[in-house]
Structures
1.
Amino acid sequence: MASISTLGVGSGLDLSSILDSMQTAEKAALKPISAQQSSFTAKLSAYSTLKSALTTFQTANTKLNSADLFTATTATSSSSAFNATTSGSTVAGKYSISVSHLAQAQTLTSDIVKSNSTALGDSAASSRTMSITLKDGSSKDITLSSEQTSLTGMRDAINGADAGVTASIIKVSDGSYRLSITSSETGSANAVSTIKVTGDDTLQGIVGYDASTSSNGMTESVAAQNAKLTVNNVDVESSSNTISDALEGITLNLNDTTTGNQTLTITNDTSKAKTAITDWVSAYNTLQDTFSSLTKYTAVDVGSDSQSSSNGALLGDSTLRTIQSQLKSMLTNTASSSTFKTLAQIGVTSDPTTGELELDADKLSSSLTSNMSGVKEMIIGDGKTTGIATRVASNLTSWLSSTGIVQSATDGVSKTLNNLTDQYNKVNDRINNTIARLKTQFTQLDVVMSSLNQTSSYLTQQFESSSSSSSKN
């Protein structure tokens, strides 16, 4: 039987067009599924946007939900000889400070040698050990090879030993070098007590040191010293120029000695709380903008059953509505023990039309200045269950958790999309199988029709030939 390479050749019918039309009609069953896929894909993206917006707001809320903001202080010094930093527990006040000595680290210096690279030890010594002992009793043994007895070699060995000192080389002039060893920490307790080289008397004579004698290879070029000062006429001594235990909640940083008494003033600082509240309001409004974008509604012509394509992907979404309404309900703290119960009382009001917050900077500043503790009580509360920022923090953590409502909604959409994909693939496979079966049937029809046409032509020729023969007889 003859084969047919093109549909319709055997039958004379436009079978290709018929098959295309049937395929188009069958494929129409995929359109509703595709539309649902597009809708749920948009929802999946929208939930991602919602989660990101909530996370950004959470960052601002975390900064606001800090009790230290409302106990912040600023330290001002009347002298450049010292400055100070404060903590959240610092109490405002004034202190008289006089600095007579700065803490300094001890420095030992060797005599001049002609080369920084020439070995200085006894070449006959089989081994040698440099022992460095500090006045606090700590000690480190450093084994030196013959090559390491040069100034460079000793410098590198000391610096690699973590011995409580650092070494360097001073070039005095061409052909004149000194080894310098400085305590890593300031203060008399961190000074070197002894440097002893065993196994090499030659090197001991060059770098040996004993604080109890005056005959040494190394000499003390800078003496170790503790910082000495008075605070409100009380003597204070410290091994460091950074003093954190003299005044509660205050760290003093000494830069120089003073001429007589100077003043350190600690004042309450409202700027940190004001900045945090301002940033929180801005972040809240940005979140509201995201809510509006995700739930945008555009009216369509009366009588139309379709929705505008510009509608937000989460229009009417219960998860977003729940978050939005619960968040709005947290903007007051009626349980506050202070006179402040609502944000409006400190200058933060809500626009009833947009839901966004409006900030009166002057009123906020006045509230913080007159009653910082009251503002803290309203916003922070007990730090566990009460307080605006505390409650918001708790809910944000819940909403954004792996078992929260945002993740649950996301998982639900993902599951629906997977089901739609399976449904689409099954329908598409059915359509493809149907079209393939019809194409086979059409091909068979072509073959049969072609065969019948050939038979018809043959019989016609036979009849015509028989008629011609009969007429001649």
2.
Amino acid sequence: MSKNNINNTQVYAIFGDPVEHSKSPQMHNSAFEFLNLDAVYKKHHLKDGKKLKEEFLNNLYAGANITVPHKEQAFKQADEVIGIANEIKAANTYIKKDNKVLAYNTDAPGFLKAIESFGNINKVLVIGAGGTAKAISLALKEKGIDVVVVNRSESKLEFFKEKDIKSYSWKDFRLDYFDLVVNSTSAGLKDDKLPMNKSQLENIFLNSSYAFDCIYGKETPFLALAKKEGLETKDGEDMLLFQGVLAFEYFTNTKIDSKTIEIMRKALKEEN
């Protein structure tokens, strides 16, 4: 791995826009501290995703996580893409190895781990069509779970059609029964917006049992509405935790134990 040129400390970062809300630094730093590793993890606000690899290399980062809206750029710019990220065409983890930038996607397995607490899931509706939606829908499909994607516009649905995943624009969407409804969009992150028309969502929730929002650390309007309709709800904290655990293992080339995972979970609950 690349060394920081000042004091041999391994430096990691989270790239995103926005990034100030991110709890990834406290999660990773708590694990570095607990395991007595000479490493630090920080926030890196990046507006222009086209400069991602350049910024990653110029700052001598040993590894990084990439969040909204740069996951597709992370995939495109990597020297080598490993695992399910090739299918998703979006990456959320970078590692520098032998002067190459390697890209992974830990969102997909992180999501599957996060929804285990819901029990048996057979059919899922994913709202949105960005990098997170791609990761989630492919992970579900690989598990043999029936998945449908709905997005405001038709133009972003090409990927899902190519992967043989049922996908619709808002206007073409027909009501159905879903065990789980997932918001993969940023609606509710910085505003009070819903990811879909309220009456449409209410109708969907009438025929559903669970709601999951990839946004974490707050009850979004999406989750509030789902709760009001009697659904069991969950925010994205566990997804963040489990994708972070996998990323941490890539960063450090080690398998971490349950004690370290609990340290990371506890750090996520602390105020930013």
3.
Amino acid sequence: MYARTLSLYDFKCFGTAKLDLQFPGRDDEDASELANINLILGDNGGGKSSVLRGLAIAVLAPALLEQGFVPYRLVRRPAADKGPEVSLLKVTGRPEDGERPFIKRKTLELLARIERRDNSSRDRLTLESTPNSPIDKLLSDDFSPAFFVVGYGATRRVETGEFSDSSARRSRGRRYQRIASLFEDHVALRPLASWLERLRGDQRLFDNAVALIDAVLPPQIRFSGAFDREDDQYIFDFDGVPTPFTALSDGYKAFVGWVGDLIGHLADVSKGAARLEDIAGIVLVDEIDLHLHPAWQREVIPTLSRVFPKLQFVLTSHSPLVASTVRRQNVFVTESAEDGSATIKQLGEYVYGRSAEQLLLSSYFGLVSTRPAAFHSEAEKLFERVASGESEAALEYLNRLTGDDEAHSVGAGEA
């Protein structure tokens, strides 16, 4: 399923918010060239991560009720008063080919209701006051490609010690396991060796998975599926040097970690699919630019969009380099409402192809200056002195703005 709209009511920091999302196959006047990309920008604490969590809960609520999910402080809790008692999440979606034999409707409306408990930080996820979900039976099959949702939090990491896939399944159902890092900071992602080696019995599927991992990497690093059985880990070719996964930089490990985990979950639900990249679903990634060099930030979203055309991505970022690779239709910006709650909107201002400084000074990021705060404060004081007629301050002000430290030192000495 693809999510067409997401509505949040009193969820986390949000009062009321609605997103009209981009999804593969969208064909109205607001469809973007990057039809499978949604990018959320905003301040820390502004609600970006909450959008990802709300979407995951709304789609998977029937499964989460029995798979180890703990609804911790999800109903909005304003500082001024007790706040609302209930949060409501709503997703409208379009069933895909594999789901249509079970669901006759052209459009689905999925609801999740969260109730606040007095004197407790643990809220209660319930479907008792909402219509019976039409997807309950499909969600009970952890290995069905129907309603495929995967999510990655900003603290994501790959398990580098002993990992037991069966133990992970016993502690969390597979549907929740796929999104658990959005809610639990300590959750580790599956290492490549825990799932990719099992695919060697199906050479077509193994080659498909390896090719997808290789396709999302930048040119200086390649992956062929070579495996070091002594160290029990996969080997990457980094600038011509064979390099074990654990010896890669944090940026490569973080990126390969979540992409590898995603492809592993696609393999789990493939069930005879011609290619893994043909499986439809929703992928949620918090801080897509995490640990990535600026050069990679300029490529990461177009690459993901191209390699996984059937997946609908909802991503967050603080990077203007990432934002400049999408269109305005792909971008949502969180902001504060008059009552102090969060809301979200789309802007008419163009974003694609703009420089980092242009975007940082635009309404998408809202900075008044890209210079350090201390420098900006000093410059304002110098400008006040210039305005009062101090000629020496005028020269110093110009030197500060041009970064001419040598001229600044000479000017100061002459003064």
4.
Amino acid sequence: MIEEVGTIVSVTQEHGVQNIWVETAIKTTCSSCQAQTNCGTSVVAKAFSPKKQSIKLPYEHAVVIGQKVKLGVPEEALLSASLQVYLLPLLGLILGSSLASYVMPFLALESELWVVLTGFIMAGVVFLLIRNKLAEANNLQYCPTLIEVYPNPVETISVKNL
């Protein structure tokens, strides 16, 4: 299970169900790298990556805004989604290009541009199909789950006589 700690930023009621909005800070590996001052990738990562991400989760117990929670995603689900998003479009590119290189000479289209274009179109179609499949509402295996709600810390101030 891949775990992340987030903060409750909002509590809403929808159709009699209490939902909490949890915000997590997106971390990049560049922040822990020692070569980040000399690396162009870290500059791009800092400039274009969003800093916070919010997710809505149902939760029936009382919580306070600012309270910390632990979220988790099963590693198998993350690996499966990654393979689908990265590997299947690549296979679509190869298959589309191979089919186009076989079919295009019969259509009197001898240019390699048609083969490349067909491969990219096939990869794009496969990517859109996978994206729509993963975004379906009943695909809850890819959604983070609430593992633990940390107790709300009570701040106390002690004063000593000096």
